[in-house]
Design brief:
It is built from twelve helices and two strands; from the N terminus they run H-H-H-E-E-H-H-H-H-H-H-H-H-H. It has 363 residues and is mainly α. The longest helix has 38 residues. It starts with a helix and ends with a helix. The relative contact order is 0.12.
Amino acid sequence: MSDAPITSASRSSGSATSGAGVGGPNGITEDTITSIKASEVEQPPKDDGPAGGSSKTVTRPGDRIFSSLASGSAIFITVVIAAIGAFLIWRAVPALSRNQVNFLTSREWVTQDINAMAFGVLDLFQVTVLVSLFALVLAMPIALGIAIFLTSYSPKWLTRPLSYTIDLLAAVPSIVYGLWGLLVFAPAITPVAVWLNDTLGWFPLFADGSGSITGGGTIFTAGIVLAVMILPVITAVTREVFIQTPRSQIEAALALGATRWEVVRTTVIPFGRSGYISGSMLGLGRALGETMALYLILRTTSQAFGWSLFDGGSTIASKIALGYAEFNNDIQAGAYIAAGLVLFVLTFVVNAAARAVIAGKKD
């Protein structure tokens, strides 16, 4: 009796199979069988990580070493800058404690007697700012024109040698620029300075100053020489940014019928504006710290600074160079180190602003 149900079930199963067999009226096709078999193939398990989240990224040893070196370099540079600032403050405090006038607002500089020191950085700061800004105003449009010519107008056979020549200006020692400015350029530019003073003397920038116009040791002469010195810095940065202008944008402007100048004005310059500004800031930082050229060109004066291009005086850096004979005394040297601290902060702010502009362009 136990075999009857099994036999019946077998027959029933066989009947169902014959009715649903391959090619039968109610059957399945070979393609269906193939798809069923494919779906039954075991799939590898998915690795959802230890907590079912995203998979953990595998870091190669070389990547870890490079990341550590890069992070270490950034930390090292930060520590060095902080150490320089701390050293300047530490060495400047003893002199500032003996100073009998306000360091930031006084114009006099008397450091010969350590018991009666009276020194201020106001005149030095103003001369530094004026000569640097004057050089920047002269260099920026020239650098922009050179960069546009090299990237959009210059023939290929001229671009490379002209670029090398401009970059070579940055390799000339500053003392060579100083000697050239003092012995060659100053006498040659004197007629122009006299004409500006006679014609535009009513304007404060071109009024009579504390320096000798015919002698050439004025901010006017020093600023032009300094403009030549920072020109390759601004030009190089601007040129490299202009080169990165997407070719598709240039071709699109040309396809719309734009002239070459219209392409430059509407495509190249807007794309490279941030790089041009950051390069100008880097050039300004270079101008603020220039020493030997201005040390040779500028003529010191006891008169107060009057914001004229025909004033003499000293920048912070050239004043430090002038006072090297007093560095054997820690207190006297501290006065110059205090001035150097002001220059350090000023230069740091300018370069930080340049980095911020570059970072904003990348964003």
